[in-house]
From TrEMBL:
Keywords tagged on the record: FAD, Flavoprotein
A GO molecular function held by the record: FAD binding
PANTHER family: XANTHINE DEHYDROGENASE FAD-BINDING SUBUNIT XDHB-RELATED, XANTHINE DEHYDROGENASE SUBUNIT C-RELATED
Claim: Flavoprotein is one of the keywords in the record: yes
Organism: Chelativorans petroleitrophicus
Residue ranges constituting the FAD-binding PCMH-type domain according to the UniProt record: 3-226
Phylogenetic lineage: Bacteria, Pseudomonadati, Pseudomonadota, Alphaproteobacteria, Hyphomicrobiales
SUPFAM superfamilies with a match to the protein in the record: CO dehydrogenase flavoprotein C-terminal domain-like (SSF55447), FAD-binding/transporter-associated domain-like (SSF56176)
Pfam family, one: CO_deh_flav_C
Signal sequence extent: none
UniProt name for this protein: Xanthine dehydrogenase family protein subunit M
Amino acid sequence: MTDVMHNFELFQPATLEDARAILGDHQDAWILAGGMDSLDWFKHRVKMPAVVVDIAGIPDLHGIREEDDGGLWIGATTTLTEVNESELVKSRFPALAQAALHVASPQIRNKGTIGGNVSQDTRCPYYRDGFPCYRAGGNTCYANTPTAMNREHALFGVSRCVAVTPSDTAIALTALEAVFTVERAGSRQDILASDFFIGPAIDITRMTALEPGDILVGIRIPGKWAGSRQYFEKVADRQTWDFALVNIAMAAKMENGAISDISMVCGAVECTPRRLTDVESLVRGEKPGQELETLVKRVASRGAEPLNFNHFKIPLMENLAVRAIRSLA
Ligand SMILES: Cc1cc2nc3c(=O)[nH]c(=O)nc-3n(C[C@H](O)[C@H](O)[C@H](O)COP(=O)(O)OP(=O)(O)OC[C@H]3O[C@@H](n4cnc5c(N)ncnc54)[C@H](O)[C@@H]3O)c2cc1C
Ligand code: SF4
């Protein structure tokens, strides 16, 4: 059956108002943006929605503009290439530009949107192959058994499901304390990044706060970290076309050679982007250097509970935290 999609009714609204009306009429409709995650699901026939609403042609959801506080607003259907190539993003939030650049391949970045990137589902191979696990409504986790393939899975925050967040831009946006604007039942809500990405203990069937029928309209990055020192690094099995084994994003402010403020986030170690608050508290007020790096290495992975085949993520995470701090020296 692979590569043969099921039949569905496709709507291509040209306005947000029309999209809202269609979604109101079809409670189980699937939102399609660039389709780079969705079409995989459809081709494998693991998800077969009867109605698909393609939002890529709605002008209000697209583009990058400056905000009064020095921040930026990025429409949900802005492509990853547009994010990566934007001078505004590169000059103010280079960590996000780098994260967008490190997603998948040029073809996928040309089509894939930032809204789709942060809303995409997990890459756990059991779940994506249609195994009836907890996340799919079943009563077991196939990735958390002694012989399971779990080298890509979580070190933290496990609650039945051990899948991790797959999105590269989510890590940078969380470090930059972005706010997600969601249209729900006719009204708009602003959701902080720390609340937008949700773990299995909150709802095992979703990776984000988006509920059926919700439209992610755009993402606002406040001016707080604009122009600060920023860092993004991703380690994957391949340099391109691959998801992170661990990635890291950091924004920091320096005063007289010392770190005055910092936000550091790791991805692919938990179901949600993991803010490294222990590292942040440790380094605030300190000068980067060998001594600080040794301490950072000690605390970065504190609390990690590895599975059978993902122990390697612990030193990876520690070394990425050290390299981020070293970039400030
Ligand atoms: C080979 C391959 C490699 C990849 N590698 C990476 C990688 O390295 N890093 C990475 O981060 N990702 C990767 N991806 C995942 C993903 O396809 C892309 O990141 C892409 O950005 C998804 O965006 P899209 O617009 O195509 O999403 P779509 O497939 O259109 O949507 C994805 C999900 O988000 C929902 N959605 C989309 N937009 C909205 C909206 N505005 N409001 C509400 N819901 C919405 C859809 O309903 C769907 O559930 C890869 C994908 C492939 C196929
Ligand atoms: S890790 Fe989560 S998604 Fe994967 S098999 Fe276990 S419950 Fe399912």
